[in-house]
Each structure stands twice: as C-alpha cells, then as structure tokens.
C-alpha cells in the first residue's frame, strides 16, 4: 500500500520550528486590529495591560518536538480508545465538522479522529507534528475507505500558500501548541477569505467540582500529555484576533466550539 504521508522536508530526527510562517503583507496578523462587525469575547487583562488574567495560553516549557515525542508514546492508545472520544465528544465533532466544504485542512489531525465526521466529498488534507500519530491517521483513512493527504508539519509554521483552503478545522489541539496564538493565525492565513475556521476545543469546566479537579491535576496532565487542561479557548482565539462568528459550550462547560472567518485583508495589515 502506498503511503499517503507526504514529506515536507522534516524527518523524525529534526526539531520542528516554532516560528510562525512568513506572512504576506496583505494577510499579516495583528493582535491590535479586528473586524468592526464582530466584538472580541470579554477577556479580563491584568493591571499592567499584559497577559489576560488566568493566563489562557499558559507559560509552559514544552517545544513542538517535545510534544511530538510525548505523542509517540500515546499514538497507539489514542487510536485504540477512539470509541471513548466518539461517546463523549462525537456529537460535537459531527455538529462542528459535518458540513465542512471544499478543500479542508485538518490541523493537528492526530490519529484521524475527525475524518469520520467530515463529508465524503471534502478534499481532505491532514497535518500533524508527530509521525507516529500520522501513521495511525493513515490507518484511519484505510478503515474509513476514504481518500486524503497526510503531511508532517508544525501547525505554527504551515507550509501552504495564503488562502489555500475553503475550511480549516482543528479539534482539541490549541491546548498542546507551544504557541497557540501563532497556530491560529496560521490557520487564518491559509484559509480562503470566504472560508471558515472551525475549532472544537476544551477548557476549564464551569461546574465547580470538575473545575477543581482539573486545577488539581493540570500540572501532572501537562507533564504527561503536553496539554494545558484549563486554558480558555475563547480567550486564546481573541488574543489571536480571530473574527468569531459563533461559539457554544457543552459537556459541563468543558467543550467549546468556535466558528470564525478570516479577517478582511485591510484589517490585518
């Protein structure tokens, strides 16, 4: 069987870059400017005018190569226990991704958990920093009998031209990116101006008992999985400057879905 995984010049021994891709002058991102049609979600900042209170991105030391190494250990486990994800999160994935259209980029596709929820007619490209999870994603494509292209790539430095995709999707991923703001801006850059960015993320529960458990375990969870368990997805999206058209929460406030559109070129210069 011919492998669907395409090389991007990054082999398993290399350390993926964490520097954002060089952006064109017409799509250069800015945290200062947003479309006037969509206000930012309310995000409280500290007195110094610096980071949002609660540190939605998190000051965490793992690099992209650290994350890739962590998921080498968990790739098989993630693939075998996908049924648990379908039970808990499947309905949110279906609702968020089930009508994605055109050329679809799945950022941090992992073992391919989103693939079964995307329309069969979608032209699928999946990227991930870990070769081990990409191997499992290839198995998922075979199991589903669908076509797709898989590429090893750093989400913070996407090797695609501007405006390459009609829909950019990503699930449960910004919590692991060393720089989630850079990754979201890259998703915006490669999304067609008339396209859509669709995110399914997790964060701190709005139910006290669950939230306290997450806070208690957050450091250990990050050490094991490279995942910021209590980040605030809407605050991260706001810091990236995305034009958020729609958002909702579920599963005791842990799951957040976001639909955003690329900002007009004159808003991101």
The tally of helices reads 7
Looking at the structure, the CATH topology is Rossmann fold
Q: Which class do the helix and strand fractions yield?
A: alpha/beta
CATH class: Alpha Beta
What gyration radius follows from the Cα positions, in whole Å?
A: 17 Å
**Helix content range:** 25-40%
Quick one: overall form?
globular
Distance between the termini: 45 Å
**Strand count, sense and closure of the main sheet?**
8 strands, mixed
How does CATH name the architecture? 3-Layer(aba) Sandwich
Strand order of the largest sheet: 1-4-3-2-5-6-8-7
How many domains? The number is 1
Unreliable sequence segments: 11-57
Nearest-integer average pLDDT: 78
Topology order in helix (H) and strand (E) letters: EHHEEHEEHEHHEEH
In total, how many beta strands?
8
CATH superfamily: Vaccinia Virus protein VP39
**What fraction strand?**
15-25%
């Amino acid at each position: 069987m011919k492998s669907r995984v395409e090389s991007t010049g990054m082999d398993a021994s290399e350390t993926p870059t964490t520097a954002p891709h060089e952006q064109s002058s017409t799509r250069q991102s800015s945290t200062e400017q947003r479309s006037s049609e969509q206000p930012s979600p309310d995000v409280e900042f500290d007195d110094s005018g610096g980071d949002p209170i609660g540190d939605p991105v998190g000051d965490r030391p793992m690099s992209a190569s650290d994350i890739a190494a962590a998921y080498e250990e968990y790739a098989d486990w993630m693939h075998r226990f996908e049924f648990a994800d379908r039970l808990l999160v499947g309905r949110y994935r279906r609702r968020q991704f089930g009508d994605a259209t055109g050329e679809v980029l799945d950022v941090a596709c992992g073992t391919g958990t989103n693939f079964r929820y995307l329309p069969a007619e979608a032209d699928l490209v999946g990227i991930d920093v870990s070769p081990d999870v990409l191997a499992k994603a290839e198995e998922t494509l075979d199991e589903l009998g669908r076509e797709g292209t898989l590429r090893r790539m750093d989400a913070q430095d996407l090797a695609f031209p501007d405006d390459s995709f009609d829909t950019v999707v990503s699930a449960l991923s910004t919590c692991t990116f060393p720089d989630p703001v850079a990754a979201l801006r890259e998703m915006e850059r490669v999304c067609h101006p008339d396209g859509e960015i669709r995110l399914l993320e997790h964060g701190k529960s709005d139910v006290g008992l669950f939230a306290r458990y997450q806070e208690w375990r957050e450091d250990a969870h990050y050490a094991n999985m490279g995942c910021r368990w209590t980040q605030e997805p809407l605050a991260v999206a706001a810091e990236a400057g995305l034009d958020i058209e729609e958002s909702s929460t579920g599963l005791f406030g842990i799951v957040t879905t976001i639909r955003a559109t690329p900002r007009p070129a004159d808003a991101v210069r």
